[in-house]
Amino acid sequence: MAVQILRDSSRAAVQKVVLGATKDQGGTRSHTIVVGGDAALPFHHFEGEIVNRPVIGMEVQDIVPDWPEALKNPFADVINEPGRWAQKCVDEYGADLIYLKLDGADPEGANHSVDQCVATVKEVLQAVGVPLVVVGCGDVEKDHEVLEAVAEAAAGENLLLGNAEQENYKSLTAACMVHKHNIIARSPLDINICKQLNILINEMNLPLDHIVIDPSIGGLGYGIEYAFSIMERMRLGALQGDKMLSMPVICTIGSEAWRSKEATAPVSEYPGWGKETDRGILWEAVTAAALLQAGAHILLMRHPEAVARVKENINQLMVSNAY
Amino acid sequence: MPLTGLEIYKQLPKKNCGECGTPTCLAFAMNLASGKASLDSCPYVSDAAREALDAAAAPPIAKVVLGAGPAAVEMGDETELFRHDKRFYHETAIAIQVSDNLSSEELKAKVEAINDLNFDRVGQHYTVQAIAIRHDADDPAAFKAAVASVAAATQLNLILMADDPDVLKEALAGIADRKPLLYAATGANYEAMTNLAKENNCPLAVYGNGLEELAQLVDKIVALGYKQLVLDPGARETSRAIADFTQIRRLAIKKRFRSFGYPIIALTTAANPLDEILQAVNYVTKYASLVVLRTCAKEHLLPLLSWRQNLYTDPQVPIRVEEKLNEIGEVNENSPVYVTTNFSLTYYSVEGEIESTKIPSYLLSVDTDGLSVLTAYADGKFEAEKIAAVMKKVDLDNKVKRHRIIIPGSVAVLKGKLEDLTGWEVIVGPREASGIVAFARANLAS
Fold it and tell me: Where do the CO dehydrogenase/acetyl-CoA synthase delta subunit TIM barrel domain residues begin and end (chain A) (predicted)?
């Protein structure tokens, strides 16, 4: 019997979100990055246009992070200077975006002042031309102050700022509205809360094409399959025309993957698991590759070699497979 | 074209006996129509009806067995395109490829390394399923020798890869009872290959250059009377391969396109082993039932096998651990005691962190039906009464001298009640497992 290629038609596509702004657009970025716009399931070029490739944001922190040595080594020469660290990520490792995590703001930790945080953001903006993702330390009160100040100081840069959560989205949404940034809407592995949060943010008049979904993934071996299925359902919803599920998806790959024992335990302690170097890199890269197949648009990653391998994987997947 | 539920219903005995596990014949017919039941479950179906229905009621993707004996692995028999619609059933089998070009020492070493690909993590045991021997040498005798030596050195299933049916036939003699997969029937050799597979009752891979050629070849082989098939549409570029695999799976499930109702074999091609693993991740994710790899380093296989396990878990059933008092390290009567739920992700995150404290400790896992701490608490399955009862059940009073238990920070609210119920000192631990090491350093070092 002759083969009749089966193409599922979509009613709608994933929202496009533009990150960053060039001089003409009121910012200082050398270029902008567009994510989303997919008119089909991930990499189904044969039934819809996959207009933009998924991108990688490499993580930079404003303090020396409590990372395993394997992860700190590649950055040993720059880890004290967020600007140079970011530069290295872009120039040497080809990061599409810089993901600046302001963990130093944590009142229980380094407790950087709001001014210090703003200065760090400016330092990184000056050091690199790529668009920035900026996220607070997780302390609700402190993040309010820090992110509002960052939004104001970087007005016009069209940052991606996070995280907005169900109980705590108003001040960040307002800051993004006033100073023209994009927002990360983070929901706890729950498609209904995800949708609800997007509705709430949108009701405050932040347009849908300024929202990115963070579904709170689990890393490989630790709940990744929940995120995988929720992301698949989101993409199917978006393609069927559900506007409130149609935003691009951002995944905290690096932090989740490197939390696990499997990524870091030395072979001397776990001889049955093989050498930790490639094991750690693959733990991160496989987390990314699996979630790319579920519809990830922005991968927030850490290890340069994992980034290189995932970029190669994306290159392979972006080759057209139209019939 | 598949029959509708009503068409099937007309052929059933209409007794509504319920012995098939479905309350009515109509409901059973609907399940048959959607490929979610097998006609074998009906004890009263007539032979005539069976014949009429078998073709239509057969699962959309055939189950094909690779190997024989305890190591044998079932492939295919899948019913879904998305795991959230129900689940994926038969984990992708992973095979490692070796060449008959290797010297006998090299081959021996490689087979030993492959045999050693056994992993234990989070209470699960992972292995690879097969060794594929490929005929690259000029001398056909080299293939027979390599196959014999691999077969003698491993319990794993075998895949024999050679284009020449005569070469395969020679190598197969003597090991046919291992039921290896024969790779592959092509347009040029399919008659001889099909006969060989048929005579030895071995599964047969079918290689077509593209979907159209593959479908035609499958039809020819089926016409020869053989159906233990595995499909290779020939794509070696990742993007083309996942498109082809998706088409095969879709057509088999949504259109009951019989020519594609078999499991899929994928061969990786990337030169860098890390790239190769990511290629394999794509194939495991997108419907391959068998993936043939070249790298056999443990550090490369563990992440891949972990992903396979994650993808194939049943989304409806949380994975859980047993309710008991677990010992982490060399515990004694002075060891601290932690308590958490029996949701395996929670349990193993906590266990891993306690291990990192280097302080031998007890960890009590309370049966919460596999719910995580906060969900279980909200659902009334992780309350002070419940924890107190389990403490009693495992005789915790007599296990340690200092009656002090550490509860998850997110259920700090349980502290007072648990103290009242047990008379134990209750310490509120960190909210996240990742805080345990710092917590132990500050509170338990003595």
Answer: 17-291
Its CATH architecture, for the domain B5-45, is Orthogonal Bundle (1.10)
Helix (H) or strand (E) segment spanning residue B337: strand B337-341
Mean pLDDT confidence for A157-179: 96
ipTM over 0.95: yes
CB–CB contact B302 A262 (8 Å): yes
Q: What is the pTM of this model?
A: 0.89
Instruction: Residue A205: give the domain boundaries.
Output: 21-317
CATH class belonging to B63-312: alpha beta
End-to-end CA distance of chain A: 18
| Residue B46 contacts A where some CB pair is shorter than 8 Å | no
Which positions in chain A touch B212 (Cβ < 8 Å)? 2-3
Question: What's the gap in Å between the CA of A254 and the closest CA on chain B?
Answer: 15
Assigned token pair, B91: 């984990």
**Model confidence at B86, in pLDDT bands (50, 70, 90)?**
very high
Number of domains in chain A: 1
CA distances from A58 to A82, A88, A91, A303, B209 (A): 12, 10, 12, 8, 40
Q: Where are the domains of chain B?
A: 5-45, 63-312, 324-444
Write out chain A residues lying below 8 Å of B352, CB-based. 260-261
Q: Which amino acid is at B363?
A: L
A313 in reach of chain B (CB within 8 A): yes
- Locate the DSSP E strands across chain A: 16-19, 33-36, 55-61, 97-101, 132-135, 160-164, 182-186, 211-214, 250-251, 298-301
Domain annotation covers residue A212: yes
pLDDT tens profile B325-362: 999 999 999 999 999 999 988 898 899 889 888 899 99
- Does B210 show up as a binding residue in the annotation? no
Cβ neighbors of B339 (< 8 A, separation 6 or more) are B363, B364, B366, B387, B391, B405, B406, B407, B408
Contact A225 B300 (CB under 8 A): no
Give the pLDDT mean for A95-112.
96
User: Which CATH number does the domain housing residue A306 bear?
Assistant: 3.20.20.20
Average model confidence (pLDDT) across chain B = 93
The torsion angles phi and psi of A309, rounded to 5 degrees, stand at: -65, -40
pLDDT at A1: 66
Domain B324-444 coded CATH 1.10.620.20: no
Q: Is B357 on the interface with A (CB under 8 A)?
A: no
> Is residue A3's pLDDT more than 90?
yes
pLDDT in tens, A262-295: 999 999 989 999 999 999 999 999 999 999 999 9
Question: Does residue A136 fall inside a structural domain?
Answer: yes
> What's the mean pLDDT in B237-253?
98
In a domain, A95, yes or no: yes
Residue A176 placed within a domain:
yes
